[in-house]
Design brief:
four-stranded antiparallel sheet
């Protein structure tokens, strides 16, 4: 499994922006569909967004569409999550995940997960 390490989380006021990064180990990063998930206190982990291996296709949860943007730089083995217009309900521990599946990727198809990075949005 690919090793993933998230970074970039922190404290931000509502309406602000934050950029998360997920660095992957190895030289096979481009073989993986990459996704972002989040888990708020007392809530189940939920899907946020995913990006195809080449970066040409993206999918967003309705709750973040228009505000969040996922991107990847395969040369740097890194996937990003640009979060704009943040809301208090975006507060969660954010995880990146990798899957060898392509196209539609279900949550149970992600076989590598990062440690998570905390995002806290204040009112």
């Amino acid at each position: 499994q690919v090793q993933l390490v998230e970074s970039g989380g922190g404290l931000v006021q509502a309406g602000g922006s934050l950029r998360l990064s997920c660095a992957a180990s190895g030289r096979t990063f481009s073989y993986y569909t990459m996704g972002w998930f989040r888990q708020a206190p007392g809530k189940e982990r939920e899907f946020v967004t995913r990006i195809s291996r080449s970066g040409g296709s993206t999918v967003y949860a309705a709750s973040v569409k228009g505000r969040f943007t996922i991107s990847r730089d395969n040369a740097k083995n890194t996937v990003y999550l640009q979060m704009n217009s943040l809301k208090p309900e975006d507060t969660a521990l954010y995880y990146c995940a990798a899957s060898l599946q392509t196209g539609t990727v279900a949550p149970n198809d992600y076989d590598s997960w990062g440690q998570g990075t905390q995002v806290t949005v204040s009112s």
